[in-house]
Design brief:
Strand content: 15-25%
Number of strands: 12
């Protein structure tokens, strides 16, 4: 059977910025919308302060939110390994933002620098009214809140762009006297910088311009790491009653805002109080609680949506010693994936012995896969697929003579 033809994927906001092997997503929102409660639920801990007053989170907290993964569970059941390393997402709880943050209001500049350090944003939006829970703007209006936050991020990006253009102008003479190529690059970069600034000043987030950014624009944006270039999804905090019935007066306006301002971004309704209650239970008690109230937790979907938002996939190594899920960027070739395990694996890469998970589950064992001719050897050009189970062969000397 010939391999499926790879369909080239259109670059999205995930492709902007400098790629790191330690990707993080940040929880962002107004004060007291439920960020720290959500963070505690995701981490199944209580180490992020969740108090009823603004700015209870000052320094960002960071945790690993473990991702439910049926493929990993199946591999563990098959191999019964001595060690298990399940997939996770790095999540950062960032202090609440208020109107004027771009000029230093609230925790202002510290908040914005914390956002710059993450690779994707989960916007946490409060969509419930409760007189006992203070709101920074006195009234609950999630569309107003998200409009405020995105405007502050654009303002900060525009200020940064103006500063970069000023710096760029200072090297004009020096670049012009080097080589014709240096002069041309300076001119191209200036054109890109001014184009990006104009886009921001039109009230548009950078990630919405993927159709108009050319290759040089992308190179410049990768260096800038702008706040509005980051991919986003939206977590909507509801009362338990509204979450269960999946209805709320705020949901339609939120949906319309997202469609207009962040098309194709995931919207995940959840109940912060309910998720916090589940976090205090063990696995068996959680299952009983979910059966009793006849609803599911929203956190697995939230973690998986954030995972996909920053364009991550999983591959697995599996055997009697260890079953492990490895996190890589979608599009990685086999040597890059090997390098996530150890740099020596990438430097001395020989080949990857690959089994597609669905086929492995169907046949049951590695031996059955070999007998069926589905145990494959792939070379340096192989693009790793989500769910691949891989054994890497490599030369410990990196292919170099000592």
């Amino acid at each position: 059977m010939p391999p499926k033809k790879q369909v080239e994927e259109k670059p999205g906001a995930w492709s902007l910025g400098k790629f790191s092997r330690s990707l993080k997503v940040g929880l962002v929102g107004m004060p007291n919308v439920g960020k720290s409660t959500l963070y505690n639920s995701l981490s199944k801990s209580h180490h992020a302060a969740a108090e009823n007053f603004p700015f209870c989170t000052i320094e960002p907290n960071e945790t690993r939110a473990f991702m439910p993964d049926a493929r990993f569970d199946w591999l563990v059941e098959q191999h019964k390994p001595k060690s298990e390393v399940q997939p996770y997402l790095q999540v950062v709880d960032i202090a609440g933002l208020v109107s004027g943050a771009s000029t230093g209001a609230g925790l202002g500049n510290a908040f914005l620098s914390h956002i710059k350090a993450v690779d994707g944003i989960i916007h946490v939006m409060r969509a419930f009214e409760d007189d006992d829970v203070i709101h920074a703007e006195d009234t609950v209006d999630p569309v107003r809140d998200i409009t405020t936050i995105t405007a502050e991020l654009r303002i900060k990006d525009a200020e940064y762009m103006k500063s970069r253009i000023e710096q760029h102008m200072k090297i004009r003479s020096a670049e012009a006297t080097k080589t014709p190529q240096s002069k041309k690059k300076w001119e191209n970069d200036l054109e890109s910088l001014e184009k990006i600034l104009a886009f921001l000043e039109e009230g548009k987030d950078v990630r919405l311009g993927m159709d108009i950014w050319n290759n040089n624009d992308i190179d410049v944006l990768n260096d800038l790491q702008l706040l509005t270039a980051k991919p986003v999804c939206f977590a909507i905090n509801l009362t338990f009653a509204d979450y269960k019935r999946k209805k709320n007066k705020f949901l339609k306006p939120i949906f319309e805002w997202v469609q207009a301002n962040a098309p194709d971004s995931a919207i995940i309704p959840y109940c912060g109080g309910f998720e916090m209650e589940l976090a205090d239970l063990d696995g068996e008690a959680t299952a009983e609680k979910l059966k009793e109230v006849e609803v599911n937790s929203a956190l697995p979907k939230m973690i998986q949506s954030a995972f996909k938002m920053v364009h991550l996939i999983l591959f697995y190594t599996a055997g009697p010693d260890e079953v492990r899920a490895w996190i890589i960027r979608k599009g990685f070739k086999a040597p890059q994936a090997a390098g996530v395990i150890h740099t020596d694996f990438e430097a001395g890469f020989i080949c990857a012995e690959v089994m597609a998970f669905d086929e492995l589950k169907e046949h049951g064992t590695e031996l059955a896969m070999k007998n069926a001719g589905r145990y494959r050897q792939e070379g340096k050009s192989y693009v790793v697929n989500d769910g691949d189970v891989i054994f890497f062969k490599f030369n410990p000397t990196g292919g170099k003579k000592k």
